[in-house]
Amino acid sequence: MTTIDRRRFLQTLAAGSVLLAGHKPVFPAGVAHAMAPAEATPGFNPDVELELNAAPGEIRVLPGNATRLWRFTGRVLRGDPRSLSFLDGSGHIPVIRARRGQKLRIHFTNQLPEDSIVHWHGLHIVQRADGHPMYAVGTGKKYVYEFVVDNRAGTHWFHPHPHERTGLQVYFGLAGLFLVGDDEEDAARLPRDELDLPLVIQDRTFNAANQLVYLAPGMMDRMMGFQGDRVLVNGAAGYTRAMERTAYRLRVLNASNSTLYSLRWSNGRPLTLIGTDGGLLERPLTRASLTLGIGERADVWVDFAGGQPGDEVAIVADSWSPMLENITGLQTGAAPVPGGRPIARFRIANGAARKSTLPQRLSSFPALRIGDAVNRDRPRTIQLSMQRGQAMLNGRTFGRMDEVADDEKVKLGTTEVWEFANDASFGMRMAHPMHVHNLQFRVVERSGPGHAISAGFTDEGLKDVALVLPGQRVRVLMKFEDYTGIYLYHCHILEHEDLGMMRNYRVDPA
Ligand SMILES: [Cu+2]
């Protein structure tokens, strides 16, 4: 099916009608809700305490009518007032900043007309704070998160994770950044404060009244994943920013539902990559282009000191569907535009250039060693497949909230190799960005056919998403540490996740 055909399938679905449509409750009453801690624990003394609400709202994105959406609001109740802010340009994308070792308490209130819960993507975290769908709370209900920030410095993020509704809730506006800092990152003396700039990439389709359009009824959009016809950065269409003549750290997150991006600089310079999902690399790398699957992050260092006031440099993106069709031209319904379109423009401001140096040593982190894996020679293989309207992992979809198969149980303290195998020769051949909750892994092997976007892969450093192309097998090495309990692994194409391409794994005591 061509891109143009697919556009005809898109049905206008204003946010208002989503609010009114209602849906069957996903959770039997008394199962999920009974587990929700609605109160703070006495004796847990947080360094930072936040209020975070998910609620309907309105934002002006395009000229004319405001766009109805769902948004996070919130405030800092205790601790550093910079712990919670909202991205420039959007007004609705929150940024939580925390330090490694801090204790956080977050009072989440669900003011949506349906169940929700927030997952902290990338964080190594106790089960009850991970935002598993079993903890979803109903309208007007509260969930109190209490946890210690246990990750090294890195660019993480958060979004709702209720079963079967994640795609819709993220699409209608609910996603934010969770930036962790630590002493090691400080020592690298990277650009900070206003020179540390997040760029959240999301694609959306708007109708003539500027309201968001999501899935058409039926299975096709769910199977193919939803791709919007405009690429927004930090919630803005046509993102443009004045930049000082100095170095910046750009924290790029692909928070789209199903679109992959290949990014490059408009001036043909290579991109300088300093970090991936799980934090800083050991040393900087350069790439002609960077590929970001859904949920992946790239920390990019760039120096504008050599630019002249008034010069403009852009990040240019090629967009790809999970079928690996180039959909860069979707916006106009025209043919794809190989070479991409600018999605973020940076204009060099007046003022003197300030010299900066990129450290050649950025960080060090504990090496996960393949020799430590208990299953080095027999990896746990997870077959990814799409067939007969189902998106599956090893032929299974998400079942009961606490269902764990025998081959999904691991032991605390062990290191394992998991192999995501996207080698089904039948059904739909699609790329699947595979995400594992609660840990950061190493990509240790990638085999099978490549693609134009392969050159921009970011398999380096610590990762929590591995993009697995059709026909590829990707082996990841991970250690199950500190916390026992039930966590998820799933495809981060949000429509696939909602279709059930998601499973629990359980960390059992050693
Ligand atoms: Cu998928």
Task: Tell me about this structure.
The structure is a single chain. With 510 residues, the protein is mainly beta. Helix content is 7%, strand content 40%. The protein has helices at 3-9, 15-21, 166-171, 183-187, 220-224, 494-499; strands at residues 48-59, 67-78, 84-86, 94-99, 103-110, 118-121, 142-148, 154-160, 176-181, 196-206, 212-213, 230-233, 236-237, 239-243, 247-254, 260-265, 271-276, 279-287, 290-292, 297-303, 312-320, 341-348, 380-387, 390-393, 409-411, 415-421, 432-436, 442-447, 465-468, 473-479, 485-491, 502-508. The radius of gyration is 22 Å and the shape is globular. The chain starts with a helix and ends with a strand. It binds copper (II) ion. The site of copper (II) ion has 6 residues, from loops.
